């Protein structure tokens, strides 16, 4: 019998949970994220895991969260939009649930999902970069079919690439002032779409996407602007990594070609000739489920049979 791999995707607005059993993924369950305190968020996560485990004490758990992660210890060093700072998330959830847990950045696990065949568990692409466009802009890197985590496990915060630096304003803001105003996240995340949407009379970014999909020209223009901003970041990533694929995921990716085509149109002229000749830019195949699928795959790869992490 295949192991019950529980995937938990923590976002700034929702927590999604699903179970991967072999190649079969349960329907993800999503609830609003509790952000009032660290303890209440931990209690919410433990409850979601217990519900998904359904009494199976052999279940294994993967967590993806919008945080800078010390992968070796499973500690969230800092986080965006959720109350996790210097929190030993892995050990805290293991204590609360009694199940083995592994923790990684949410965009990193989404990259794992996009680069892996669910049926075989094998890599489908060697070199892949993902940008997850939601509440913020996250990033994940797969090199040689394996997650790239950097020297301390904290890579890759691609949303904090500086794409519009205006040094005439003087010294950059301090380390507590993130995202920096010149970063990809500040210009191309869901919040930026919300600003564009409200300026055009829409309630929020989601309403703008729906209107654009229905053919509203004003809404289409808002997504064009966001896509063009995203394209600058994509160009930087192609120049840096020459990947097989650059994938756009996260909630805003539901806009599909309305977001992607403007991004592609801006990206390629900014790529150095001769680089990216084998690169494809695409929307995430798994859509909003990439994070929860990747979290479950993380559990399988790091805690399953023959894995290296202790259980």
Automatic annotation (TrEMBL):
Family annotation (InterPro entries): ATPase_NBD, ROK, ROK_cs
E.C. code: 2.7.1.2
Keywords: Transferase
Enzyme class: transferase
Top-level taxon of the source organism: Bacteria
Family annotation (SUPFAM superfamilies): Actin-like ATPase domain
GO MF terms held by the record: glucokinase activity
Family the UniProt entry places it in: Belongs to the ROK (NagC/XylR) family.
Protein name as it appears in the record: Glucokinase
Taxonomy of the source species: Bacteria, Bacillati, Actinomycetota, Thermoleophilia, Solirubrobacterales
